[in-house]
Amino acid sequence: MARNLPATVLSDGTILLEVNNPEYESARDAIMRFADLVKSPEYIHTYRLSVLSLWNAASCGFTSEQVIEELSSYSRYPLPENIIVHIKDTMDKFGITKLTYEDGNLILICSDPFIMEEIRRSDRMEPHIERPAGKDSLIIKAYSRGLVKQILIKMGYPCEDLAGYTEGDPLDMSLASITREGLPFSLRPYQKDARDAFWAGGSVRGGSGVIVLPCGAGKTVVGMGVMELVGAQTLILTTNVVALRQWINELLDKSNLTEDMVKEYSGDKKEVGPVTVTTYQILAYRKRGTSKEIFPHFDLFNKRNWGLIIYDEVHLLPAPVFRITADLQARRRLGLTATLVREDGREDDVFSLIGPKKFDKPWKELEAQNWIAAAHCHEIRVDFPQDKRLEYHVAGERDKYRIAATNPEKYPLVKAIIERHPEDQILVLGQYIDQLEHIAALLDAPMIYGQTPNSTREELYEKFREGEIRVLVVSKVANFAVDLPDASVAIQVSGTFGSRQEEAQRLGRILRPKPQGESATFYTLVTRNTKDQEFSQKRQLFLTEQGYKYTIWESQDFLNQWKRRNQR
Questions:
Q1: Confidence tier at 323 by pLDDT (50, 70, 90)
Q2: Count of domains in the chain?
């Protein structure tokens, strides 16, 4: 007999979760730790037990028995027998292969003799094997540590790396108890938990992996806490120059590090010190006309004896940096991100080269504890003007989205929303520059996009923080690692197709906790029954998984409600 529980687990690994069930929220919080959200229409959300989601759960300490027990406790029907077997087989593969370091040799150990034979005979593994070390072990070439882990995860045997790390040159760093502005400072409880999960008491079981925390939850501070524990010279990789300088400001504000110890390596400066902060862009730069293999700034990885490398917004790590990271497996590596989702599907490379997920905290849990602002999400659907419909329907697939996303009917809505929030600091976010230029002119508001000089960006961000600017129009350059704590309203007029990570990052711009505990409001404007609406639903997946709900409005209903409110 069926029980009144929210989940139905199918034999193909699909989990159907009923939203209106009283136990939906607790089931969602449990399931999201070991399954991926696939789609989220109004009443039934669909999850899937993926191999990588189960391996990440295993790396966080979950056992197959715990996952089966959690699923069973929320499942309306008994779990299919093949799913029980799948969970056990998948999770039990984590740790079958291990890398260790013994007597000056890198050793690959495999606890299953048949899998070991498969590895021995693999054409991909053969170039990396020095010689056999025993029935269950191989000596691996020293430079192949990262490549071997990449190969093994593709073969279906994620490798637990216990080979240890180069300590790096020492760094005398400690976190401050009072900031430079005289404010008290300490790590929050969950920040300590994240730091300690990564460090694992300094053992070989720690020292590499990814910390997943919402935007606004202080991932930079977690990174600084790890730096203090490691106590070694550190290279920090960030998304852009603005983020780079925010890292430097935070380090100088909240630690004993001085300006001569923290250096910027960017297009403007090429300085290297005990702590050096750079960008993915500068590392992936190569001169036109040179070999695709030549990246002149890769030598930064050898300029110092780094004991720790921090990858900020690790979900954005570009392919060339993956390549150099494969050679850096003897260095401790910390990835920081709000979401492990990568639109290029290379989550397994993050797992094998940076490390598995070490800590994850649901967004709604931190919201309930007032560490991040509560947020209300709205999707407002607008119609096409008649003169745009033919252009849309005869366009190619890519142009269809651009035409729908830049629908001019969105402009009066943007203005109406801003009038609705007269006291708030507001970000207008979009993908298409001509659309943003029109909105900036309409609102008489400043705009930041890719061509805006870094000095101008920083000046405008600072004026926004100080309240001199109330509305700021920004392109995707502001998606990541921009600290605008007073921003409380975001209006998204267009996005990068169906990018789930972008939606999460854009909401994150307004999640910094507010002085009086005020909530944040996120609007996304979409053209009804078009690619714009279709991609919007894909973008919302990650946030839906985190517990956010979108109120759906018809544009005229939204405007009428606002008019009625003004007439009262």
A1: confident
A2: 4
Task: State the pLDDT at residue 496.
Answer: 78
Residues 106 and 85 in one domain: no
Rounded to 10 deg, the angle between the 81-92 and 51-59 helix axes is 60
Contact 474, 427 (CB under 8 A): yes
Please spell the DSSP secondary structure of 491-546, one letter per residue.
EE---STT-HHHHHHHHHTT-SPPTT---EEEEEEEETTSHHHHHHHHHTHHHHHT
Same domain, 25 and 152: no
Considering the domain architecture, whether residues 488 and 562 belong to the same structural domain is answered as yes
Alpha helices in 93-213 (DSSP H): 113-121, 145-155, 189-199
On whether residue 469 sits in a domain, the answer given is yes
Interacting residues of 420 by C-beta distance below 8 A, sequence separation 6+? 562
Record the tokens describing residue 105, joined without a space. 């040799």
What are the tens digits of pLDDT across the range 529-558?
Answer: 999 998 888 888 778 777 788 899 998 888
Q: In whole angstroms, how far apart are CA 101 and each of 94, 124, 209, 348? A: 19, 22, 19, 23
Write out the two tokens for 474: 């920004």
**How many Å apart are CA 41 and CA 16, to the nearest integer?**
11
Domain annotation covers residue 184 = no
Which pLDDT score, from 0 to 100, does residue 290 have?
60
CA distance readout (Å), 558 to 163, 352, 388, 535, 552? 59, 47, 22, 22, 10
CB 354 within 8 A of CB 209: yes
500 pLDDT higher than 90: no
Tell me how many helices (H) and strands (E) the chain has: 22, 23
pLDDT tens, 307-317?
Answer: 999 999 888 88
Domain closes at, from 161, 180, 202: 161
Flag whether 82 is in a domain. yes
The answer to whether residues 104 and 45 belong to one domain is: no
Tokens of 43: 């009443």
Q: pTM of this prediction?
A: 0.85
Beta pairing class for 234-238 and 275-279: parallel
Per the DSSP assignment, residues forming a β-bridge with 544 are: none
Q: pLDDT tens across 74-123, in order? A: 999 999 999 999 999 999 999 899 999 999 999 999 999 999 999 999 99
Angle at 343 between CA 342 and CA 344, to 5 degrees: 90
* pLDDT at residue 44 tops 60: yes
Nearest to 71 by CA among 61, 361, 81, 95: 81
pLDDT tens by residue, 151-175: 999 999 999 999 999 999 999 999 9
3-state secondary structure of 484: coil
Same domain, 515 and 475: yes
Tell whether the model's pLDDT for residue 402 goes beyond 70: yes
Residue 378 and residue 519 in one domain: yes
Range of the domain at 111: 97-161
Which whole number is the average pLDDT over 464-468?
Answer: 90
**Domain harbouring 494, CATH code:** 3.40.50.300
Q: Which two tokens stand for residue 164?
A: 């240890």
